[in-house]
């Protein structure tokens, strides 16, 4: 079984901890019947089932008992969904993407949680290691007033916790951007690769956050129709404010990385031009010395052909004259190249 935590709450307090889905169904029905049969009323009855990567059979069992819509069930089985809220009758299907910044690898881990909320139940299905659901459950169990708000209260707590967890991720990404800016002007290697890796992480994070604003706005439109508690409405609007702040910060980070890419491209081009200029200067020097050495070698190669009928072959001053000529040619070429600043 993939059940992580499972409990039934009555009047804001935990009353049962079922060990299987079948036991949950039985105990929940018993709690509801007891609540309906109590003439004084006994508050909200709620089952909260927490699952981690359940099997298709477990999801279908939940769908059959709680009458979950087949489209939502299909999305849950396939996973890899964008943030959204879909209402099917009395059941609300919500997908949210938690995020965790890993300090060891300086990367962002994006998770996925599917939430079904109905009249007497909350089902949380997570497809990632880190989600914050356990912390939310402890928080809700410690806040009886919030738990008495029923499934909407639990959904608010989940949204609030996941959005709050976005801010440490933003801090980690800001540090990464600062490090990239320092590395850019320090001329460190592999800066371009780090910029593109960070841009990809921010884009993935942004895709998990940006849709939440429109999703929650559509959710707010049903406040009156579905009788959402007034205090809960205020809290949910505060969550929306945080979502908007996170989205705005991510947009600013994307703009900063775009600027960093432009600066990196400019600096890379400048370094390439500088290297080309240095190489050109080296080629000038090599070419100059090659010419200086090549000119005397022409004279030497001519007299090295050993023909009998050659001018000045038997002249006593021919050899010194040839040496002087070679040195003179080399000296003239050296002066010319020095004047042109090739040497």
UniProtKB/TrEMBL annotation:
This protein's GO CC annotations: plasma membrane
Lineage: Bacteria, Bacillati, Actinomycetota, Actinomycetes, Micrococcales
Family under the similarity heading: Belongs to the CorA metal ion transporter (MIT) (TC 1.A.35) family.
Protein's membrane topology: Multi-pass membrane protein
Cellular location(s): Cell membrane; Membrane
GO molecular function: cobalt ion binding; cobalt ion transmembrane transporter activity; magnesium ion binding; magnesium ion transmembrane transporter activity
UniProt keyword terms in alphabetical order: Cell membrane, Ion transport, Magnesium, Membrane, Transmembrane, Transmembrane helix, Transport
Reaction equation(s) it catalyzes: Mg(2+)(in) = Mg(2+)(out)
Protein name listed in UniProt: Magnesium transport protein CorA
Principal location: membrane
Entries under CDD domains matching the protein: MtCorA-like (cd12830)
SUPFAM superfamilies the UniProt entry points to: CorA soluble domain-like (SSF143865), Magnesium transport protein CorA, transmembrane region (SSF144083)
Transmembrane segments: 286-305, 317-337
Top-level lineage group: Bacteria
Function: Mediates influx of magnesium ions. Alternates between open and closed states. Activated by low cytoplasmic Mg(2+) levels. Inactive when cytoplasmic Mg(2+) levels are high.
InterPro entries for this protein: CorA_cytoplasmic_dom (IPR045861), CorA_TM1_TM2 (IPR045863), Mg/Co-transport_prot_CorA (IPR004488), MgTranspt_CorA/ZnTranspt_ZntB (IPR002523)
PANTHER family according to UniProt: CORA FAMILY METAL ION TRANSPORTER (EUROFUNG)
């Amino acid at each position: 079984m993939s059940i992580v935590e499972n409990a039934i709450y009555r009047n804001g307090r935990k009353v049962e901890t079922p060990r299987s889905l079948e036991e949950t169904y039985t105990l929940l029905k018993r709690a509801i019947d007891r609540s309906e049969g109590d003439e004084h009323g006994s508050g909200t009855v709620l089952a909260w089932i927490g699952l981690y990567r359940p099997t298709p059979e477990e999801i279908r069992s939940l769908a059959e008992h709680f009458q979950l819509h087949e489209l939502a069930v299909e999305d849950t089985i396939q996973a890899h969904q964008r943030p959204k809220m879909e209402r099917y009758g009395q059941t609300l299907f919500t997908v949210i993407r938690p995020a965790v910044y890993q300090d060891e690898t300086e990367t962002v881990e994006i998770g996925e949680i599917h939430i079904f909320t109905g009249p007497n139940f909350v089902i949380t299905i997570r497809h990632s290691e880190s989600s914050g659901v356990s912390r939310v459950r402890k928080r809700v169990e410690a806040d009886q007033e919030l738990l008495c708000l029923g499934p909407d209260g639990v959904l608010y707590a989940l949204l609030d916790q996941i959005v709050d967890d976005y801010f440490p991720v933003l801090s980690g990404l800001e540090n990464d951007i600062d490090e990239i800016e320092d590395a850019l002007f320090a001329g460190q290697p592999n800066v371009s690769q780090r910029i593109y890796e960070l841009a990809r992480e921010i884009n993935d994070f942004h895709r998990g956050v940006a849709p939440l604003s429109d999703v929650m706005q559509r959710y707010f439109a049903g406040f009156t129709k579905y009788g959402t508690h007034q205090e809960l409405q205020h809290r949910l609007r505060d969550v929306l404010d945080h979502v908007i702040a996170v989205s705005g910060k991510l947009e600013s980070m994307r703009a900063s990385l775009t600027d960093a890419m432009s600066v990196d491209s400019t600096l890379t081009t400048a370094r390439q031009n500088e290297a080309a200029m240095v190489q050109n200067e080296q080629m000038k020097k090599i070419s100059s010395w090659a010419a200086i050495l090549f000119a005397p070698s022409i004279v030497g190669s001519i007299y090295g052909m050993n023909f009998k009928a050659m001018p000045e072959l038997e002249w006593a001053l021919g050899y010194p004259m040839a040496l002087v000529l070679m040195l003179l040619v080399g000296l003239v070429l050296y002066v010319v190249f020095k004047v042109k600043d090739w040497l």
